[in-house]
UniProtKB/TrEMBL annotation:
Protein origin, superkingdom: Eukaryota
The species this protein was found in: Akanthomyces muscarius
Name of the protein: NADP-dependent oxidoreductase domain-containing protein
Pfam families: Aldo_ket_red
Residue ranges occupied by any NADP-dependent oxidoreductase domain in the UniProt entry: 37-271
Amino acid sequence: MPFSQYIQLNDGNKIPLIAFGVGSAVSKRWGNAKALPELVKTALQAGYRHLDTAEEYENEEEVAEGIRMSGVPREDIFITAKDLSTESVTTEQALRKTLNNLGVEYVDLYLIHNAMFAKNDQDWQRKWTEMEAVREKGLARSIGVSNVERQKIEAILKIAKVPPAINQIELHPYFQRTELASWLKQQNIALACYSPLAPLRSTRPGPVDDIFQSLAEKYNVDESEIGLRWAIDQDRVVITTSSKVERVRGYAKSLPSFKLTSDEISDIAELGKKKEFSGFWQFFAPSGGDK
Ligand SMILES: NC(=O)c1ccc[n+]([C@@H]2O[C@H](COP(=O)([O-])OP(=O)(O)OC[C@H]3O[C@@H](n4cnc5c(N)ncnc54)[C@H](OP(=O)(O)O)[C@@H]3O)[C@@H](O)[C@H]2O)c1
């Protein structure tokens, strides 16, 4: 059974709230991509309908193989891809290569992976115009950004015909981005959270350990599922990954079976504020931003 939770983006398209990410543990660049086709197949057959990919992960062909092996029709899958933004190729050239690698005619969502290439606002705004052009040609159904602060989105909004549909950022209880998240909400720009399980894998022990454990017991699920629902139950897209078939299947079974209450969401948030951790932000935005 496919996960049935979606939200609507500001361009009218629907996005599934749970994505299987193919970076980190299963990328060719930082992990082991050999097992990836099987994992993508397992994820799709288990009910995931959203794959989060990127040119930078160097595994688009393996993702394509997994999609073919799954037997799930292309039109039932929401594919997010990301542009690395190198100076040597245009956005359209980069996206056409990605489409070719993925074996598809369009992606559902195309993101500028980060703003590190842009020397100034003009570079950044020019890039957004190229993003609008690939959308206009039907190569990407929605367009958005990743790893950017409010100021970068404001620069886009000054010139945009189509505003960004989403900002994909690191977000978890130890890095809540409260101001950015509430500003995005006011602008009707969706939020996608990566590294949702950082409190479980990178920074233990920590102040959310006990509540994750007690809620996992209450709902009879794994602690990682508490971390994922904390994002989903705030209407945020959550991007997680796993190198283990059992975990991929387990999420598909357990995540639709429960929901956190609003008190539980705020209790986790309050405890999370007692610790600060970011695995990525200092790399993409060394000048900081709200935590
Ligand atoms: N836009 C960007 O710049 C950007 C940056 C980073 C990531 N991403 C995307 O987000 C995806 C997910 O990123 P992430 O890896 O940081 O996600 P994550 O969901 O925080 O972490 C996933 C990892 O957590 C481990 N895990 C799960 N439950 C655990 C537990 N109870 N205890 C200890 N470890 C546990 C899993 O290990 P097992 O493998 O053992 O199951 C898996 O490797 C990436 O694949 C990528 O698609 C995007």
